[in-house]
Amino acid sequence: MMIGPFPWWIAVIIGLIIFSGYMAFRAIRSEMRLEQEFIEKEGKVYMDRIEEERKHKEETNQSGKGEDEVQSIS
Fold first, then answer.
1. Which of 10, 52, 56, 69 could tie 6 with a disulfide, CB 3.0–4.6 Å?
2. For the whole model, what pTM was predicted?
């Protein structure tokens, strides 16, 4: 049996090649999505750590200023 000017099995192979390309595209897209989620998660951890350090520095600076004022008054 022939489909157009070529045998049927060539059409099957071409179809499988197209299907394989589609599945590879889906896998790459899924991998990119997972990688992006990981990057966002790690970025959030990093930003939380920076925020905690900023709050700690503000608390340290505020408590240091209070001690200086007490010492200068006496």
1. 10
2. 0.57
